[in-house]
Backbone:
């Protein structure tokens, strides 16, 4: 017979957790809810001015450079600036072919 380990996810649904394991997992969740309620009261009192934003614009750029690529200095990118990105010549692309290498 297989044993149940709390926090371990398995595809085998024949293992049933014990009552003690269930209460351990559920109790942790209720403790987190209680803690968030306690902290929420303290954090809302610390705001010194009301929020003025009425709208938010979220821009998603698939394929855009990440903050790591834009701020870290990479001398190899300076050498390869403008060359096409294809390290081995064997890459297969799902959506579109990437552009040329950009310097940092």
Residues:
């Amino acid at each position: 017979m297989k044993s149940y380990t709390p926090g371990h996810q398995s595809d085998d649904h024949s293992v049933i957790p014990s009552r003690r394991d269930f209460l351990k997992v559920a109790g942790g969740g209720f403790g987190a809810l209680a803690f968030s309620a306690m902290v929420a009261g303290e954090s809302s009192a610390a705001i010194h001015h009301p929020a003025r934003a009425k709208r938010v614009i979220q821009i998603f750029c698939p394929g855009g450079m990440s903050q790591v690529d834009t701020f870290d200095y990479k001398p190899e990118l300076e050498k390869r600036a403008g060359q096409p990105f294809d390290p081995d010549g064997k890459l297969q692309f799902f959506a579109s072919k990437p552009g040329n290498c950009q310097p940092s």
